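Methods — Computational structure assignment.
A single polypeptide chain was analysed. Its primary sequence is given first, followed by the predicted tertiary structure written as structure tokens.
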Amino acid sequence: MSGVRADTTASLWRDRRFLRFWAGQSVSQFGDRITELALPLIAVGALNATANQVAWLTALIWTPNLLAVLLGAWVDHRPRKRRLMILADLVRAGVLLSVPAAYLLGAVTLVQLYAVALLTGAAGVLFNNAYPPFFVRLVPRSSYVDANSKLSASRSASQVAGPAIGGVLVQALSAPVTLVLDALTFVASAVLLGKVAVDEPPAASAEAAPSLLRRSRAGLSYVVGHPVLRAALGCAATVNFFTFVAGSGLVVLFASRDLGLSAGVIGVALGVGASGALLGAVIAPRISRRIGVGRSILVGSVLFPAPIALAAAAGGPLWVRAGALAAANFLSGFGVMLFDVNLNSLQAAVIPDRMRSRVAGAFSTLNYGIRPLGAVVGGLLATQLGLRATLVVAAVGGSLSLLWLLASPIPRVRTLDQVRATDPADGSAEGVAASAEGVAENTEGGAGAAGGGRSVARGGGPAGDRANTVRKSGS
């Protein structure tokens, strides 16, 4: 037995185990919004940090993802993935609590803040690599899209209300004290996770296990050799590169300098964008049922980056400029959720159990590792071409990520029942080929159903979130 939950028609609203996990993740997502505001404010207010020093705080949170491919290989051979997730939550809580403690003693330093960013980022990578095998034992296969929709909706809701709540708390309690609240959200997540029992398989034999480096290489080989995962990673990495070329910082600068919008108007426009993500997360399952999982991913891969061009083309009266920015953010937020919810569900369906953490590590290393490069290229393009031209490049380049999908079996996947996971011989070339062939056979077998929905697709219509968090950030 694989240990994965059998399919059931019961609603997730009546699944107490999932509801506990969802509650813990929802609470901690709101805590993340507090940290995103409080940590830079401590650096600036208490330590007079420069813009470059503040930027390093963000960079250090992402840096541990470069080693995710190794950590994923290690996690795959660990028993009790749930315990690793609980450990990651408790580590993040303890690290964050060190900041207000040092602040009260007058001993907080920039080096400490850098260490906090690095350690919370590393603990986040551990959590994310242990998450995939835990998820498939918590949620039945038939509910993958529904579960990812609910989890993504919580993240989107935190982005709508979180910054405002964080701002009020920082003003009322001070930035260091608000970090205590975020630490408590990680504790709450750990406690709720501790109450979610799942059937986890025993650990692999240490004597039979290949070396860590070989397992890491097997994870990368499996992704590259798998038609669905190769296309998914290529698409996600491409769209992430170009959306980071635009970057939230350049968008804000463009809105202020070129569009002449006030800070208040820009804030409202970005808030509207977050509401688009919330709507997208909520109705993604409905769209998936109507046009299919694969075509939902295709639509999302274009709808996420393309609206950046709408903002770049804005002009005319104030209400038109502000409306274009708000509409661009709304459509982009909707698109990224349509992309993430369905792609995360498809990946969960095609990855074999003992490869899940290795594949997650490979994805994190390549998909997240390319984001800082995109930001650097965006800065260079903005200097040479100007802000408006850079946003157009980001929109066009990001939309071209669709080409990865068109050459893969993904467009033919209408439901998750059409795909299956074939466990390779530890990622060997033969095993990867067998798994790829199995997926291709299943998607071809369901091509009739998918093909029959083409007119519906025309009529009806994870990238990863651009927010920098200390937790999972989309595909």
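Note: The radius of gyration is 22 Å.
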